[in-house]
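Data availability excerpt. The first of two example chains:
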Amino acid sequence: MNLEDPALSGIHPVGTDTLGKRVYNELRNFLMVGGVQPGEKLTLRQLTAAFGTSLMPVREAVHRLAAEGALEVLPNRAIRVPKMPRARFDELIQLRIMLEGLAVATAAEKISDKAIGRLEETNEGFIAEMRKPPESQKPFLLNKEFHFAIYRAADMPVLLSMIENMWLQFGPFLHFSMGVKGRMATNKFAPDSHRRMIQSMKERNGEIGRKALEDDIRGAVELILRFGDIPE
């Protein structure tokens, strides 16, 4: 087969970076949904086994995430999710409220009725998973799916990228906001604030959505400060 044949021009060569990007995206998402706690250590061997790949794409993904501040590579080659000083944590919360609030308010003006229906389905699944014992990542994944469906509906790609980077830093703290002492009993904020965000989409009222988003974040922060370890 001649790969230079014009009939095959839609096929792109698969370079070694393709697998690296997939590993990077999977690991990045894992951090964004609270898969690893602040201060928790991992090894390249653990990650290589989890991804079922060779060492190189995992190492590349780790170094890329370390450059973004999401991971630390220690002298003994261990990998750690960095702990966050309280001042940085507080700044991150302020930025999340500002930027994600803007995304929610903008989405309320643009989101389709079909997308609102999908939001309701996602939130119903999220609430059902929150009632189960805290052993699965499913609630965290559904929570992220819910939020980012709204943020994407705002159709502001630069803003979306900024929000993704904030979630990458904030994600490891999510464990403390939903995964302790019985999910629904502990986190009573998320289901209500999600419903209010959905209602704001239906009413095309961005300010209601913005307030619901702020309450959602502040509710999570209350639990993180109660159960988490954030150095002063």
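And the second chain:
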Amino acid sequence: MSPNNIFITEDGSHSMLSKEHGVSYHSKHGAIQETQHVFINAAFHHKLPATSLSILDIGFGTGLNAYMTFLETKKMQIVVNYTAIEAYPISLDAARALNYSTLLKQNSPDDFLKLHELDWEKKHPISDFFIFTKNKKRLESLDFNNQFDLIYFDAFAPNSQPELWQENILRKMFEALKVGGVLTTYCAKGVVKRTFKKVGFAIEAIPGPPGKREMTRAIKI
């Protein structure tokens, strides 16, 4: 995916249009503030206090969720094992063009770029607090069992990527979490919440990021 697909959202941060799905990776209201609200605040901070967390990211996309989580681990000194899934990676040229490290006031973009440059299907200790693995695979081909404290469910919307919102996939997400584990998503559609409940989740409707009244937090009970 080329840098030509990049555009600026309302908080000044970049997002991109997905060539495969024809929609943007983030809200037009702000990529950074969306990630901060939906995944860092509603998921990561929700599980604190903790000395370690295991996180599954569906999917890696621009790398913003992973990068902002990495920065949180440095600040909070929490060990995170982070697994990201992405079937359609963006190009390194596109990753180099993104402005996240500049806006997040990091002196060097190297840590952000490293997330994109590292080999797939391998575990990488990025720091004392962040162990990173990314899988270039379709979610449907993977199985996890009681492995994760958190899932960042950052699939494209149900009308753009309906296959990832089916009961079999959301059941897979339920099975991937430890008991008490948390999944967050910007999506608050009634049919999606009903499917979450059907596979066993308890659902919390919580305030959404700018431009969205509500989002969903699902808890494995």
